[in-house]
């Protein structure tokens, strides 16, 4: 339930806090005092749309905060949750749950399970067909629970098997597609006949081919330089030093060094001559090297950053091909298990279908009785149950329809045009489903539009009844509804210093009687008070 509602800077609301009570909370007051603004503020904190024009004149932001009491809620701290939303003129939007920033979508999803607002043009969960089967099953209760739980277990097992089959390529088309891809990849690598270290060797060859002209020129220059004088000059030096080598040991050492150099240069000269004569440039070989490297680069882009990684990928691919080819037997066992599960699911679905069909008629009858009490005796509420594919609820698709007048075609709930009719239809449904609806807070904005007299009295009784299992907030102009409030609040406006402010007062018992009298008669007279006391007493 909402324990405290705090609103700041919305319309004519300056800074307002309301302490709400359990059961049936009634909001009455002057026209234009801000009653609907209070409901709009709750809609805003439920993730509803917000217009910048709603921000109070002269302010740059609006703020709404709720203190919720939700026993046994995972998000609760000591069963209390504080939810807030702050919106600025510049478009900045801040949403928080217990101080933690959340997105607007997260806020909307969270509040959708806590507060249900019904206004003249508001959509609710009960207008959304995806919730209709849940409402029907909750109405049915224990009779369907065992079958539904057994079915859900089978449904979850079915989903697991289908997931495993998909992962195991149990689908023949998917299996062939995957095998074709893997075989193509394996063959591409296999046909390339890659060797470890091959890329490095090819790169060296490529480097040689790219620099062959430069290499040949340099070797030729070196060969000429040595052959044209270097060896002869060293030989002349040897002969010169030989003449003095016996005069001193150091000359003899120098002579030996010169001879060593002479032999080394001769060897170098022969080597360079050999290298020079071996220089050979083959254009075909160069093209083969380039093509081979292009192939390796292409494979690296697909399968790995090196030949070693490519060969590892090939090995893994081969293992995967073998694994897939050996899956048939296991997949066949899974398919048999899946078929058995689906047969059991079908049996349970048929059982649940019969239960739903029987209880749908009971639900329709109860809701139609409530509609008659609400002065809609010619309306007919109908539950449609159609067969669909397996889903988590069986093979049933449930949607509520209604015909509001004799001779008219039935329509989906969401397509009912009249606001007054919609209000009473919603109230009839909620009265019947009150014990099964888990939404703790129900809000009705001027649900009495277009009704009076006996219908208004019945509306008040039903709201009071719903308030036994939910917190109910209702704006009303009907004395018979206001008289049934567990908590009554009077909304008024005050003008001060050229500004208008919304005020909220929680009424005492005597003030409630005065307010019911005012609504009933337009002014508080003794006769009106006596009538108000009678209405209050009957509540």
Structural topology:
Layout: E1 2-10, E2 13-19, E3 24-29, H1 35-45, E4 61-69, E5 80-88, E6 93-97, E7 100-102, H2 104-112, E8 115-118, H3 132-140, H4 142-167, H5 172-192, H6 198-210, H7 212-242, H8 249-278, H9 283-303, H10 307-325, H11 328-373, E9 380-391, E10 394-403, E11 411-412, H12 419-433, E12 441-445, H13 453-466, E13 471-475, H14 479-482, E14 487-496, E15 499-506, H15 509-521, H16 526-538
Parallel strand pairs: 3-13, 3-14, 8-12, 12-13
Antiparallel strand pairs: 1-2, 1-4, 4-5, 5-6, 6-7, 9-10, 10-11, 14-15
Q: What does the model show?
A:
The chain has a 6-stranded antiparallel β-sheet. A 6-stranded mixed β-sheet has the order 8-12-13-3-14-15. A 3-stranded antiparallel β-sheet has the order 9-10-11. It folds into 3 domains: 1-114 and 439-539, Rossmann fold (3-Layer(aba) Sandwich); 126-163 and 336-420, no CATH class; 178-325, no CATH class. The mean pLDDT is 86. Helix content is 55%, strand content 19%. It is of the alpha/beta class and 539 residues long. Strand 1 (2-10) and strand 2 form a beta hairpin.
